Fold this protein.
Amino acid sequence: MAIETINPADGTLVKTFPALTTEAVQQRLALAAEAFASFRRVPLAHRALCMRKLASTLEEEVEDLAALITLEMGKPILAAKAEIVKCAAVCRYYAEHAALILAPEVVQTERNHSYIKWEPLGPILAVMPWNFPFWQVFRFLAPALMAGNVGLLKPAQNVPQCSLAIESLVRRAGFPRGTFQTLLIEVPQVEAVLNDRRVVAVTVTGSEQAGRAIGAQAGWLIKKSVMELGGSDPFIVMASADLELAVTTAVKARTVANGQSCIAAKRFIVAAEIYDEFERRFVDGMEMLRVGDPMRESTDVGPLATVKILEGVEAQVKAAVAAGARVLTGGERLHGKGNYFEPTILTNVPRTAPVFYEEIFGPVAMLFRVQNIDEAIALANDTPFGLGASAWTRDPAEQQRLIAEMECGTVFLNAMVASDPQLPFGGIKRSGHGRELSAAGMREFLNAKTVVIADQGPAEPEPDRKPIVIYEPADRDPDDRTDPYAAYRNR
Ligand SMILES: O=CCCCC(=O)O
């Protein structure tokens, strides 16, 4: 696949980009290594200043940036604007919280003095997809840069303009040259970049296939990797649920990003007592969605990002029907210009249909009826994936069972699964490993260096070594914005 912007709403080729040559890639790797050597020493307060500037620039340029998202991958314009606003939020979150996350942790041992010092690792390769072409990059870059790492982005081939815009935003925010670079390269060039000794780790958000290939290589090279791969999230609705809210959320949860999100709900598992009513309202909800030009603010569902994805979704639906599934609504691509597929609900999907165990990256829901919570949990867990789960019940005993028994990285009760800068995000099973966001995500690419100082030190304590302040959140005035770690700086 060439590196190009093709408008998925009408198939127009907007712009083509040549892949970087081997020499150009080498220059960027050298620049990244050089940038890391000095950037890791830039005071945290200065990095935070740049990160806040980055947040405000995103907000100032939201209209243009959102239009770029919609042009390149077809997300409805209001959702694209929300994506940019969320990127600003993650920048502010890490600007605010990095000091706390990176503060040395004193550990009480029998030694004189022991603590954990968090250190950056170096240039990190980020292989990122197209479905949230800003957000998925920002949720990597904000913690990485605040920690003193530097980033090399290999974006999906169909969102080059979004990726170049991010590089420009980072630079304009004041981050030094080379701290974040976009590599417009072809897929086969990724191997050499990861092999390069200057690249110390890799994060992948994307398909299982990409995760396997890059994860295997990273494992062989003994380089740290974080994998955020596919999902087929369940959406369980039990009899005590608020049905109206569950249905409206179900429609939204299945069609977020035109149905192309790893954490979109894909399998709807509904208790027999309310199944018929849920089915009726769910069909109505999907039929009421406005499918069309994603640049229009009134559009709910735009085109799929590429012709290949459209063809893949169509083939999955056809194979499901051939295996015995029934189409309750939709089921067809919309003929004419653009990669449009009707919002679709399938029922009676048998385990023999490939789609039962696959991820569907389009606005197609699978609906199942279950007799009780045991059956609901068993069906929800009958998947190779383990990313998120949304479950709707007001019964405390059912809630506890769902929290304890769902095999996934995230459980939302009475709400749809969504990422949040403050909370860890990631999966288990074939959805990947490692976490993004929050303190957990930032620490994935840090060296937890153990420091033990066993001697008594000089007779007079060195002023910069003491006092060791242990941060006690409970003691801290929530309005106090002073840096509690000042004593640690420049140790
Ligand atoms: O494909 C994955 C989408 C993740 C969206 C999010 O982080 O909210």
Residues 131-132, 135, 261-263, 418-419 surround LJUCG4UG (CB under 6 Å).
